[in-house]
Amino acid sequence: MNDLFTWAALGSLTGASAATLLATNVIGGLIGPNADKARKWIALGIALALSYLTAAFATDAGPEKWIIAFFNGLVIFSAALGINQLPPGNRQATPIQLAQGNEPRFIRSWA
Q1: pTM over 0.70
Q2: Residue 15 confidence (pLDDT)
Q3: Which helix (H) or strand (E) holds 44?
Q4: Is-contact 16 47, C-beta < 8 A?
Q5: CB–CB of 15/29 below 8 Å?
Q6: Region 14-30 average pLDDT
Q7: Backbone angles phi, psi at 103, to 5 degrees
Q8: pLDDT tens digit sequence for 51-110
Q9: Ramachandran sector of residue 95 (left: φ over 0; alpha: ψ -120 to 50; beta: rest)
Q10: DSSP type of residue 76
């Protein structure tokens, strides 16, 4: 159990970003193709919820922790979705190879 998520890991940027990405993909996968447009909003909601949950457990912070939690939620959202990477115009295009007729079709990319 110590190798999986812990409360301390969920309180870190890396853990919260990973949890946001994982939960968004699982929820979107369960809902199906109709959730594709809502995935960003789902991710934002999860990121903000994790941030505010972490702020709720912070006992040594003042009332400004709720404002800081909002911005931390945006950072978690940005890290989970890769928004903090280079602008899309500067990224290298990844070539896409389509499956030929003789290749197995049960192996597909989830991205």
Answers
A1: no
A2: 85
A3: helix 39-57
A4: yes
A5: no
A6: 87
A7: -90, 150
A8: 999 888 888 878 888 999 999 999 999 888 877 665 656 555 566 555 555 555 555 555
A9: beta
A10: H
- 24: tokens are 């968004």
Distance, CA of 4 to CA of 62 (rounded, Å) = 31
φ, ψ dihedrals at 76, nearest 5°: -60, -45
Cα dihedral 81→2→48→20 (10° resolution): 30
The dihedral of CA 6, 8, 9, 10: what is its sign?
Answer: positive
C-alpha distance from residue 25 to each of 1, 46, 98, 106 (Å): 22, 12, 23, 20
d(CA 40, CA 9): 23
For residues 4 and 12, is the Cβ–Cβ distance under 8 A?
A: no
pLDDT band at 9 (very low <50, low <70, confident <90, very high): confident
Q: Report whether 39 contacts 28 (CB < 8 A).
A: yes
CB 47 within 8 A of CB 73: yes
- The residue type found at 70 is F
- Tokens representing 31 are 């809902």
